[in-house]
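Lecture 7 notes: from sequence to structure.
We start with the chain below.
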Amino acid sequence: MFRKAEVVIIGGGPAGLAAALSCHKHGIRDILLLERDEYLGGILQQCIHNGFGLHWFGEELTGPEYAQRFIDGVIEKEIPYLLNTMVIEVREDKTIYAVNPQYGLMEIKAKAVIFAMGCRERTRGALKIPGGRPAGVYTAGMTQRLINMEGYMPGREVVILGSGDIGLIMARRLTWEGARVKLVCEIMPYSTGLSRNVRQCLDDYGIPLKYNHTVVKIHGRERLEGVTIARVDDRRLPIPGSEEYVSCDTLLLSVGLIPENELSEGAGVMLDPMTGGPVVDEYRQTTIPGIFCCGNVLHVHDLVDYVSEEAEIAGDGVYRYVNGQSSSNSNYLPVVPGEGIRYVVPQRICGDREVEFFFRSDAIYERGSVELTDGERVFASKKFMRLVPGQMERLKLKKEALTDKEKIKYLQLRWKGSAKEDDRVCN
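Predicted structure tokens for the same chain:
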């Protein structure tokens, strides 16, 4: 099958759904949404806990409830979508090749493409933990799907490696289902998840969180029998003599998320080595004109509300592009992370609108501010009592703040203050 579309959106999760509605709101009608699963909504369908929508809708919703509001909007606006559709290639000229059971191999020619493929979890293979290959080792997201959607309990005595948000939430979920979560190990001296999830999912249930610890061996042949954990030093290497054996029948891995960027790489989009996602401008346009990006395929978000907000920006950018209003690549001003900042998105701007930068710190800091500067002048700043890597932060730059733009070579986001050393101490 061959067809044309003004805008093709790849991914029917929260980012893709919000991007489709944003494009429609801006007047684009020839939209096609492609989703590889058998239903819309993406990962939100298995996130049955509440806490979604406080920023976007002003009320607390579960994941499926949040997704359904956007699904209802897509259906109401009669935006066409194809389920069970796997995109296998996107070319630089915005030709898309996909397959699905109904149409077989499809070739779709688009004026603009929005990448909204989300992210995936790091697996045991990426960690290279020594030991056998017994049953009972899962990623946190797979465990969430097994319990919430398939109705299966993975085990009864659980150790969780990593303090990402999904792992923290699953510690609580498993406890509710009668499992005993013995402990959570975190190799860093701080939690990589939100502070509220540490309090609500671990502290409230008496589940210990061991910072500066990791799993160094997996025990068991047919079924997991236990793990050996150890304390790590400043280089995150196990300290000899600190090993401790913990019996368990289930190990959950919550060790980070990786943007799904095989299609981005195949299209020739430039990737940021720190985020793992594409380099974009303030309209979420990548280094290839006409290819846009939003959501966790761009960088991993804490809150789905921010994903929806970013998709709204991408829809605005697509409208500008298809109507010939985009800036040329030569007009971009680079934005780079400076002292204390791990990454910043967007990584370049044309400066013709107000911009909100998303960023994460590279350590725990307190009592200071984050500044956007060209090395001499400060164009925007925001004070923080505490800055932690596990929480994404934002800084707004007003359009009128960039004076003499042609004289600026680059912008840098940097921390100005002191590090909180207390949180680096091994527990």
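Points to note: The first strand starts at residue 2 and ends at 10. The chain has eight helices and 27 strands.
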